[in-house]
Amino acid sequence: MTKTRIIKSIYPLTIKIINISIQQQLQQFLFTQLLNLDRANFTHFLSNNLPISLYRLPNIDAFTYRCAIAFQLSSHSPLSPLTLADTIFNTLQQQPNHPEETLSLTFTLKLLDPGWLEFTLCDRSLSCWLQSWQIFPYPRKRFTQKSTTHDNLWPLQYTYARCCTLLRLGEQEQLITLKNPLFPPYQWPLSTSHSIPWSSLGLNQFERSLISQMLLTVDRLLNESGSHEIKLALALSEHFLEFERHCRIFGATSRYKPQLSQARLGLVAITQILLQGLWLSQTEQPPRHRL
């Protein structure tokens, strides 16, 4: 398999966080830049409000989104995908960076032959994305049909209850403070009076794998119709249980590295609210927080 040739790249490219789906934010950001260009080559695409083709590459070592917008535009333009991608790249290169105090995502942007645009999220921006869960609401969707059989929900129920147990234990150990021990739907479960030290995460393979699955879950939930919520929930459950097996929270970790324990409990909290929302997409009855 030949490696795609990098033509040029820029760093940093910053985008202000407006919701918790990175895919959706990149799509909205690119659409805004096309509007600013106001070129005849983009008229058909813009007038038909077509979705921008952008997807995550399956690699947990680097959180990268690849965009095919130049290929979409070239079908209604005499220009090649590479020429169109270069035009967009040069426009993005001129974007001002947001101040450090602004909650934003920082990317390395690459222009690749024959016209791909790639956005790679820097690891430090993962902390900003994780922090945004305390600010932005859960990405609720309107579901018209609820499942009538729930036999396949047991692994989800178990993992959800396990998350709640760990969060209660974290409060008992005075690592975190819960807003409500009953975990009401669609609410961030932790008190926001103390920020979570996300930068304490070492981002080992199990932490990265869980975060990667969180990103995938949110992106698919918000950007795909019929996104198979139960499959997403079961995959997230599997990644979480693998994370719990290999990433200690209590015992020596909480005694000697309490900030790492707090950050890992933050990952537990995100998993809890995601699993709860995915469960409620299938049934009106909330999942049990104790088994």
From TrEMBL:
<keyword id="KW-0436">Ligase</keyword>
<dbReference type="GO" id="GO:0005524">
    <property type="term" value="F:ATP binding"/>
</dbReference>
<dbReference type="GO" id="GO:0006418">
    <property type="term" value="P:tRNA aminoacylation for protein translation"/>
</dbReference>
<dbReference type="GO" id="GO:0004812">
    <property type="term" value="F:aminoacyl-tRNA ligase activity"/>
</dbReference>
<dbReference type="InterPro" id="IPR009080">
    <property type="entry name" value="tRNAsynth_Ia_anticodon-bd"/>
</dbReference>
<protein>
    <recommendedName>
        <fullName>DALR anticodon binding domain-containing protein</fullName>
    </recommendedName>
</protein>
<keyword id="KW-0547">Nucleotide-binding</keyword>
<keyword id="KW-0067">ATP-binding</keyword>
